[in-house]
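protien #1 (seq + structre)
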Amino acid sequence: MIKNLILTFCALLSVLSISIVAQTNSKPWTEWSKKDAEKILNDSAWGQTQTTGTNQSTSTSAITKTEGAGREDVGRSGESGETLGGPKPVNYRVRFLTAKPIREAFARIVTLSKPNAGKDLSDQLQGFIDRDFGNYLVVVLSVESEDQRAAAMSMGALAKITKDILQDKVYLERKDGKRLELIDYKPPINDGMGAKFIFERTLDGQPFLNNDSDSVKFSLELSEKMKVNVKFRVPAMIYGGKLEY
């Protein structure tokens, strides 16, 4: 009976997640609420969260294998079980910056934080959204936690590392095992996006991902305490009729 309740709960969360993403995609980014933008950034086909520091280290989404939810092999890490004064969860936010909806979500967060800003800011943000990254694919990683010291230490570690240090420690991997190796790295700056991992968009002369791809995983193993493995479902990455990554 308990198992059936869990399955029912997960199915319900799946429906809710799909509904939120679908509603967001049907509206221009300038009309998104803060919740809409955060959903795209933290729990969507293009932005995912890995949570550690709880009794069960999991990702935040409770679903998936369904279009729009963007996750698989995941379970919601609950606040229950966290003891008062115990370790606070640490959230690793992994996002495809080269995916247009992620840039739109970042832009919406900025506009909501500056409601009195003029047209200059809107034009700058639209330019950021419409930017052409060419043959580059960029994944950004940031760390958030109620334990500000823990988050600051993780971000500090990302600020100190270099591309050479990251060789063989970070990659993008398709389900078939093919990988993209890192070609450049930009440490976090004060832009709210986090560290930037840069890859080529193609492999062997072909797009690394296409409409027939199944999934892609971002993997980073910087230390025993910082291991990030987040999987994205490629079929869910369609946005405006186009594969966005």
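ok now protien #2
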Amino acid sequence: MTTGPGKYDDITTHVRRVTKANVAMVIILEGNRGSGFSVQSYGETNVRALVNILRSCADQIEEDI
């Protein structure tokens, strides 16, 4: 995971605040700023949970295609 704000960090901040989440991730493909992603997390435990969620999502996407 990269450090510092990305091109969609402002959108991720908005999502995190509106949902009152400890972790938020936004993935954009071919958006108005190009493709990219932004992750905001508080604490290492949350990052480990995010890794598990992303692996599960990838498995489900592969099954669907």
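The chain is about 50% helix and 25% strand.
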